[in-house]
TrEMBL record:
The lineage of its organism: Eukaryota, Viridiplantae, Streptophyta, Embryophyta, Tracheophyta. It is a peripheral membrane protein. This is C2 domain-containing protein. GO terms for biological process: anatomical structure morphogenesis; anisotropic cell growth; cellulose biosynthetic process; plant-type cell wall biogenesis; plant-type cell wall organization; protein localization to cortical microtubule cytoskeleton; regulation of cell shape; regulation of cellulose biosynthetic process. GO terms for molecular function: microtubule binding. PANTHER family: PROTEIN CELLULOSE SYNTHASE INTERACTIVE 1. ARM repeats lie at residues 88-131. It comes from Nicotiana tabacum (Common tobacco). GO terms for cellular component: cellulose synthase complex; cortical microtubule; plasma membrane. InterPro entries: ARM-like, ARM-type_fold, Armadillo, C2_dom, C2_domain_sf, CSI1/2/3.
């Protein structure tokens, strides 16, 4: 049929608005064939189909749908998508989306546009200049879930490079963020395609990372880390990673606001380091090393704090960096004092390389005045979330079992916790 001129004849029927639905159906069947799409005759179908969609006399919804499908079929062929005639199809498809089509028509048109912008910078420019960016952003927020996801995939392709960088705005980020929030409310999770669209914007247009909508997206990214599939978690982690990369160049108030919002991810990042896929580890560690948090040190009990006569009156003094020393209450109940006392320090970023110095002292007038000291490196708790153990006091006892302290360390996002 194709070799006998069927494509040209069917296009003529459409142009004349004769037997439109039947002609469009046959045309779509022909153009859905890979071998037929590779023939020279198919290139000449692009402009007539585009004109048919733009023609005010084209009224039949089914014929319009089939003609749109036929265009989508054509642009599965990369050479056809790159052809100069494809620009006319871009304009026709954007016009179709502006005309309040059915949800099915929206999906078909968006998928056709995806094929067009995937291969051609000139097609991206044609879509943008026809008003396609705003049209598709509106669809993301107002359409059925399937249409919205397809629209976000289109945004990802449209902004995969800087061809139309002047159209990448904070409003684009806002529209994607709103779709993420809507998806979370509706399903409790997020389709990763929304996050991938956001990553295309953050990755290719660093200026968008410092915008208010970018900051407002962070709580949703954190929730996506918690509730999403592995693909969603990875996309959310990538987005947080991209935002973090811009903090050194952002205004101080922006980087602080973003870091505080991202700190809610600390327990999730710690979990991913220990139990998530290996490929997550590097980015999770990178984020943890720069998020504000709170270090909590719990002095649980001391062991073997003996003196020759009577019970000791034991207390511990804690010093971290240049902060004022803290100390526990005095416990006089015996050689194994129970403290169960916690101390907290808040940090703008993790205390890398810092050490906690603890000295264990005796207020009793009898016996020695000190039971020893211990110095503890605290970096590890940032990655693990919690570390506990028995820490031997030095110098060690020469006449009995070693004296030690049972201590637990925690690193969390609890930035409002009051320090003891």
């Amino acid at each position: 049929m194709a070799e006998s001129g069927a494509i040209e004849a069917l296009l003529e029927l459409l142009r004349c608005h004769l037997c439109e639905e039947t002609a469009a159906r046959l045309l779509e069947v022909l153009l859905n064939n890979v071998k037929i799409r590779e023939t020279k005759a198919t290139k000449s179908a692009i402009v007539p189909l585009s004109q048919y969609l733009l023609d005010p006399q084209t009224q039949g919804q089914q014929a319009r749908l089939l003609a749109t499908l036929a265009l989508g079929d054509l642009f599965q062929n990369e050479a056809l998508a790159r052809s100069s005639d494809a620009v006319s199809a871009c304009r026709a498809l954007v016009n179709l989306l502006e005309d309040q089509p059915t949800e099915e028509m929206k999906v078909v048109a968006i998928c056709a546009l995806q094929n067009l912008v995937m291969y051609s910078r000139s097609n991206k420019r044609a879509v943008a200049e026809a008003g396609g960016v705003q049209v598709v952003l509106d669809l993301i927020g107002s359409s059925d879930p399937e249409t919205s996801v397809q629209a976000s995939m289109f945004i990802k392709l449209l902004f995969s490079n800087n061809t139309i960088q002047e159209y990448a705005s904070s409003e684009t980020v806002r529209a994607i963020t709103a779709a993420i929030e809507k998806d979370l409310w509706a399903t409790g999770t997020v389709n990763e395609e929304y996050l991938k669209a956001l990553n295309a914007l953050f990755g290719n247009f660093p200026r968008l990372r410092a915008t208010e909508p970018a900051t407002l997206s962070i709580p949703h990214l954190v929730t996506s880390l918690k509730t999403g599939s592995e693909a969603t978690q990875e996309a959310a982690l990538d987005a947080l990673f991209l935002l973090r990369q811009a903090w050194s160049a952002c205004p101080a108030e922006v980087s602080r606001a973003q870091s505080i919002a991202a700190a809610d991810a600390i327990p999730l990042l710690q979990y991913l380091i220990q139990s998530g896929p290996p490929r997550f580890q590097e980015k999770a560690e990178f984020l943890l090393q720069c998020l504000p948090g709170t270090l909590v040190v719990i002095i649980k009990r001391g062991n073997n704090m003996r003196q020759s006569v009577g019970n000791p009156s034991v207390f511990c003094k804690l010093t971290l960096g240049n902060t004022p020393p803290r100390q526990t209450k005095v416990v006089s109940t015996g050689p194994n004092p129970e403290f169960d006392e916690s101390f907290s320090w808040s940090f703008e970023s993790p205390p890398k390389g810092q050490k906690l110095h603890i000295s264990c002292k005796n207020k009793s007038k009898m016996g020695k005045s000190s039971f020893g000291k211990v110095t503890i490196q605290i970096d590890r708790v940032v990655m693990l979330g919690a570390v506990a153990g028995e820490y031997t006091l030095l110098p060690e006892s020469k006449s009995g079992p070693s004296r030690n302290l049972e201590i637990e360390f925690q690193w969390s996002n609890n930035l409002t916790q009051n320090a003891n």
